[in-house]
TrEMBL record:
Gene3D superfamilies: P-loop containing nucleotide triphosphate hydrolases. InterPro entries: AAA+_ATPase, ABC_transporter-like_ATP-bd, ABC_transporter_ATP-binding, P-loop_NTPase. The lineage of its organism: Bacteria, Bacillati, Bacillota, Clostridia, Peptostreptococcales. The keyword Cytoplasm does not apply. Belongs to the ABC transporter superfamily. SMART domains: AAA. Pfam families: ABC_tran (PF00005). The keyword Nucleotide-binding applies. Residues 4-229 form the ABC transporter domain. This is ABC-2 type transport system ATP-binding protein. Keywords: ATP-binding, Nucleotide-binding, Transport.
Length: 314
C-alpha cells in the first residue's frame, strides 16, 4: 500500500512557474528524497502534500485518503516545521508537554520519543538555549508525537555543521523503526543517498526521474568502464597502445589524457577489472589508482539541470 500517491498533479504558482504532471508514490515504510536546484518546486510540492497549499488538478492521496480531508489526513502526517517563533521562556519539557496536550499524545509515548531523539539531557533547558541541531531534533520529535504514518521534511539539516547533520540523519533514520515513512527535500546529495530508499529529481516543476539510486544511475550512465591512473604519463601511453593491440572484445574504446587511461567497456562486469589488473601487473606498470567510471547522483543531477542553466547561474 502506498502511503503517498500523487497522480497527474498540476499547480500554477505564477506566470513563470507551475508544477506539471507530478506522479509520485511512496511505499509504506519507505523514505523518498526530493532533490533539485533552487526554485525547482520542492517546497511547493511539499506544501501541497502537507495540505497547506491547494493544487489545480490531479490527486494527492495520503494512505489512500485525499489530502483535502484534513481531519483524517492531519492524523496521518507530521510536518517538520522550521525553528521559528518558539516561546523562549519555556523549557523543553514544558513545551513538549504543552504540545503533547494539544495533540493528545500519551505521556509515555512522549517520554519514549524524547529519549530516542537524544534530548533527555536538555529537558530542563530553556528553548532559547538549544543549539540549532537540537532545535531541529525537537521539531522532528514534535512532528511525530501523534504517531503519523508519513513525515514531511523540507531541508531538515540545512545550515547545520557536518557532525550535527550526521547526528540528525541517525535520528531521522531511526523513525523507520517506528514504521514511519518520510518525504525529505534536500540540497545535500549525500543526505538524499544515505537517508532514502528512493530519490526523485525535480526540475522546473516536473519530476524528471525517480527510483532507487542504482535505477537512476543506470538510466543516466552512458559510459561504463574503468579509469587507470599511472604514475608516469609515458607509461599511460604505452599501456594504451598495448591494450589496443590485444583487441579485447569488451573494450569499446580507450583514450589517454596525461597520466589517465580511460577504458570504455560494453556494460560492466567484475571480470573486466580483474583482467585489466592482471595485464597491468604482468606489464609491471606503476599504477597510482584504478577507478570504476560510476556516475554519482550528483552527476545525474548536473546532467539533468541543463548545461545552459549551469552557465547562466555562474
Ligand atoms: N507565492 C509565490 N508567488 C510567486 N512565485 C512563487 C511563490 N512561491 C514560490 N514561487 C516560485 O515558485 C518556484 C518554486 O519555488 P519553490 O520554493 O517550490 O522551489 P524550491 O525547489 O523549494 O527552491 P529552494 O531549493 O530554493 O527552496 C520558484 O520560482 C519560486 O520563485
Amino acid at each position: 500500500m502506498d502511503i503517498l500517491q500523487t497522480c497527474e498533479l498540476y499547480k500554477k504558482v505564477s506566470d513563470k512557474f507551475s508544477l506539471k504532471n507530478i506522479n509520485l508514490n511512496i511505499e509504506s515504510g519507505d523514505f523518498l528524497a526530493l532533490i533539485g536546484k533552487n526554485g525547482a518546486g520542492k517546497t511547493t510540492l511539499l506544501r501541497i502534500i502537507s495540505g497547506l497549499l491547494r493544487y489545480d488538478t490531479g490527486k494527492v492521496l495520503i494512505d489512500g485518503i485525499p489530502v483535502e480531508k484534513s481531519s483524517k489526513v492531519n492524523k496521518l502526517i507530521g510536518i517538520v516545521q522550521q525553528s521559528k517563533g518558539l516561546p523562549d521562556s519555556l523549557t523543553v519539557q514544558e513545551y513538549v508537554r504543552f504540545q503533547g496536550r494539544l495533540r493528545n499524545a500519551d505521556i509515555k509515548v512522549l517520554n519514549g520519543l524524547i529519549e530516542i531523539s537524544g534530548l533527555t539531557e536538555y529537558y530542563n533547558q530553556y528553548l532559547s538555549t538549544l543549539s540549532g541541531g537540537n532545535l531541529r531534533k525537537l521539531h522532528i520529535m514534535l512532528s511525530i508525537m501523534h504517531k503519523p504514518k508519513l513525515v514531511i521534511m523540507d531541508e531538515p539539516t540545512v545550515g547545520l555543521d557536518p557532525i550535527v547533520r550526521r547526528d540528525i540523519w541517525k535520528y531521522i533514520y531511526s523513525l523507520k523503526e517506528l514504521g514511519i515513512s518520510a518525504i525529505i527535500s534536500t540540497h545535500y546529495i549525500d543526505e538524499a543517498e544515505i537517508l532514502s530508499d528512493k530519490i526523485a529529481i525535480i526540475d522546473n516543476g516536473s519530476i524528471v526521474t525517480s527510483g532507487t539510486k542504482d535505477e537512476i544511475k543506470k538510466l543516466y550512465n552512458e559510459e561504463n568502464g574503468l579509469e587507470v591512473t599511472l604514475i608516469d604519463n609515458n607509461e599511460a601511453l604505452s599501456f594504451l597502445n598495448e591494450i589496443a593491440k590485444l583487441n579485447i572484445d569488451f573494450i569499446k574504446s580507450a583514450n589517454v589524457f596525461n597520466d589517465k587511461v580511460k577504458i570504455i567497456t560494453n556494460g560492466y562486469d567484475c571480470s573486466y577489472l580483474l583482467l585489466i589488473s592482471k595485464f597491468l601487473a604482468e606489464g609491471a606498470y606503476k599504477v597510482k589508482m584504478i577507478k570504476l567510471l560510476d556516475l554519482s547522483i550528483e552527476d545525474v543531477l548536473v546532467k539533468i539541470i541543463s548545461p545552459k542553466a549551469l552557465l547562466s547561474d555562474i
